[in-house]
Structures are given as structure tokens and as C-alpha cells.
What we know:
Rossmann fold; globular; about 290 residues; six-stranded mixed β-sheet; 2 domains; four-stranded parallel β-sheet; alpha/beta; 11 helices
Amino acid sequence: MRLTTRVAALCIGLLVSHQAAAELPQRWVSAGGALSEWVSALGGQSKLVGVDTTSQHPQALTALPSIGYQRQLSAEGILSLRPQILVGTEEMGPPPVLSQVRTAGVQVELFSAQPDLTALQGNLQHLGKLLGAEEQASQAYQSYREQLDTQRVRVTQAQLKQQAPGVLLLVGHAGGKPLIAGKDTAADWLVQQAGGHNLATHTGYKPFSVEALASLNPQVLVFADRVLTGEEARAALFRENPILSSTRAAKDGRVIQLDPTLLVGGLGPRLPDSLKNLSEGFYPGISAQ
């Protein structure tokens, strides 16, 4: 009798678990590069039926239907994919489109794009519940913190021997007049975590005159081009902004290219590895420590 009771309890538990999983949204659309990466990292990649243009990692996401740029979405494009849920950060919009999508019966969930660990922890907890992967999300956050702790130690050791370099991080489009990343941006967080001193004192991303760029005279230039990559991107940056060639960074060959999708959608899973690469550019020899 006792065995029968246990078997019955087990069957009921499995049935409840199956029903709970079935109630979770199965057709997802995601807007925001880092957020889409976390969906994939937590096992939800197969549920994605569409992503925005900033969602390019893992590479398989680029084969999915595109819903356009995260700030300029259209309700028609989203609804044509018959999603059950649309996820994105507070950068997603415009608001009337989100309202239309909600009215059509699609669940819309917003996440924080703030570049800090508290926001990341909240995002992962929220995402874990929606995916039915709460334990996996908790482990992912713990691993992330440990990687950042290790990174902090590396930078601290490097700064015992070298002063933090003055850095400017530029975001441009095919080499055109760039925006400089200031405070309260993912780019600023990235520079600081890598051990650099952001020379920009403004908030957000703002255009600067080429004269201002030269007067700041950074020791390291980090640039992210939304269109071009590799040597083509580097050549376009200096061709369109020749005054940059007079900076210490250019003369010393300390110009580092950054994937622009790392700066969209909050702190993403690839950032710890990117921090290591930046630190090696900021502190020559740090990799040997």
C-alpha cells in the first residue's frame, strides 16, 4: 500500500511538473543583444523565433527572422512570427508598438539594460523563471561574479606596476564621426572593469569635435563600428577622423577594436572574456601574470 502511494505521488509530481513546463511560453522573440545571448545560454535558443538586429551571438541567431532594430520595432513584424512572449530591455520600443503587441495578447517582459551586477542578477532571476531554468540562472550569475572577481585581482596586480591608462571608447558607423562613451554606459563599465580610466566626463554617448578628441589625447583608443570590422573598420576610422592619428594611442599603436553588440542589452555573457582582452591592451604583459 505504501509503495502504491509513493508511485501515485511520483506520478502526480511528474504531471504537475509537465503542466508547469507546458504553461511556459514556447515561442519567443527577443530584442537586445545581451538579453538574446542569455536566453541562449540558459537553454532557450530553440524557443526563439525572431530577434532584433543587435542579436548576433551565438551566430545561429542571425539565421532567425529579424524584427529590426530594438528601438525601432514594428508591431506587424513581431506579430507575424506568432510569438507568445516578447522580451527586451527598457531600450526596446517605441512604446506604442509595445502597446500594440500587448493588446494582441503577446506577453511583453522588460529587463534592465543598466551596466551593473544588481541589474544582471535581477535579469537572470526573471529570465530563469520565464524559461523554467531558475537553478541554471543562479549558477550562471555566480559564475559571472567569480569571473569578475578574478578579473579585478588581475587588474589590481597590474596597477601595482602600471598606472591606469587614459582611454576613450568610440562608437561609430562606417568610420563616420564617432560618439564618445561617457558615464553610466555599458562601455564605461567595460573600460573601468578592464582597468582603464575613461577620459570622457559626460553622461551617455555624445558626439565630440575632432579637436576635443585630440585634446583629450588618450593613451588607448577603443572603437566599435556598427558596420565594418577588422582592418577595414580601423582604416575608415582614421580616414574619416584624421586628427586621431595625432593621439598618443595612434602613435603607440594602442588602438583596440570592440564588437559593438557587447554594448547592447545590459551585461552579456561574453563580457568577462572581452574584459581579459581589453586588459591585455591596457596593461601589456598582464596575461603573463
